[in-house]
Amino acid sequence: MNTDDVAPEARLLRLFEGHRLTPAQRRIAHCLVQHAGQAAFLSSVEIAELAGVSQPSVTRFAMTLGFDGYPALRKQIRELGLPDSAGRGETGEGTVLSETQRAVRTEIANLQHLAGSLSDMTAIVKAARLLAPSRPLPVLGLRAAAAQAAGWAYFAAKVHPDVRLLNEGGSMLADRIDQAADAGATALLCFALPRYPAELMDGLSAAKKAGLSVVTIADNAFAPSADLSDVALPAPVGTELIFDTACAPMMLGRVLLETMVDEIPGAQARLEAFEQSAASRGLFTD
To answer: Which residues form the HTH rpiR-type domain (predicted)?
Structure first.
């Protein structure tokens, strides 16, 4: 494949594939992906500052990937021919963007990156085929990801006969996962967004122990949840504002649900029945 046809982030991701990375190394990898257009020109100290790790951690990260040190990794990144994105804070006319405008532009870029990745639907189809037959289907999302899980579960319940939302942690979470497994669940969908709650990892461990397949929608391929996932579907979040924005993960969730509809017997009939019921009850004003 011509590397010009591959998104810059995807070219970097290929360098990290097949390596078991520590949490600190995942942060470095994520930082490099976030700054794909500038990574080839940043020093190890600058990368360390951006990723919030020590400079020796960056060196160890490069060596984990099989390089002699960070300079060798940076040389490899330069050879990928990534476009320079240093001017992303300006428009084509050179107008300086405000903080909020940059945040919106970042989300647009995140969605464009997601659109490019959807040229290959293999992972999404695999995820849909794991989730669709699960009866019930537990949907897990805690803290920042709770809203994503709740929104997805709301719509999924229109086409899936038994969706169970798990949006609270604590000692009951493992119980509810076990109960779902005992009731016949075979898979679980998880939304994992930063910052990752420790109890989310406990929940995923419980799901694996219960024999459930785990599909995770996370902000990047190096999220801690990846090691406990049978299928990991990455979609970047925006980090320009005080609180992260998650348009791309939401969109990816809807794409997954759209794909699942074809795998759920009677899904269309169930949706039509809901619409008829809603109309007869005057449920909506439009």
So the answer is: 8-84
